[in-house]
Amino acid sequence: MEIENKLNKLITEIAKLPGIGPKSAERIALYILSVSDNEASVLLSSISDARSKIHLCPVCFNITDSKICNICSSSNRDHSKICVVEEVRDLFAIERSGEYDGVYHVLQGRIDPMNHLTPENIRIKELLERLRDGEVKEVIIATNPNFNGDISAIYIGKLLRPFGVKITRIAMGLPKGTEIDFVDSVTLSMAMKDRKEF
Ligand SMILES: [Zn+2]
Prior knowledge:
By secondary structure, this protein is an alpha/beta fold. It has 2 domains: 2-53, Helicase, Ruva Protein, domain 3; 63-197, Dna Topoisomerase Vi A Subunit, Chain: A, domain 2. 43% of the residues lie in helices and 14% in strands. The protein contains 7 helices and 7 strands; from the N terminus they run αααβββαβαβαβαβ. The protein has a 5-stranded mixed beta sheet with strand order 4-3-5-6-7. Helix 1 (2-15) packs across helix 2 and helix 4 packs across helix 7. 27% of the residues are buried. Residues 57, 59-60, 62, 68-69, 71-72 line the site of zinc ion.
């Protein structure tokens, strides 16, 4: 009984991970139990290492283990262009497409009225702060092409207008209702190239 409780607790915790259903959680739990002590401790120490050493970049809210992330601190990136994404995984997807050479701003979420997520819950204020010194000439809004992504884009677009920067949106050619991190690199790279004034 005791064993079953411990296994169930492990399965329940794994099932909380994004994209993991109960069946996969059970498979992962049994796998963890089957590996050697050494493999299990490597897994545990990678989790605790990542958790203790990785934090959010204070400029763009990407994740980093340095003071400022490698994109913000790179002189090879075009700092006059900011691409606004909802989550770090969207930044990774755009980086994989290889089409973009500017910097990013990760909102850490989206406006989602159904779940009571308002503009104050995401990093919009910090985005506007970044525009104050006039170095930024273009803001590319790359929120997801779905309902919440669209209302977030419209809201942010309105706030950006007074700054006189060029505002573009990449999601135009992307399938409606999709999420950026599920889009393949070729489509994403074309969507970035074909970005339209917003
Ligand atoms: Zn950064």
